[in-house]
Amino acid sequence: MNDDFCRNALKSALPRHQTPKIFNTDQRSQYTRAAFTGILKQKGIKISMHGKTLHDNIFIERLWRSVKYEKIFLKEFETVPKLLAGLKEYFEFYNFERPHQSFSWRTLAEFYWGKEVA
Question: I need a labelling partner for 18 at 20 to 30 A (CA). Which of 10, 40, 45, 113 fits?
Answer without folding.
Answer: 113
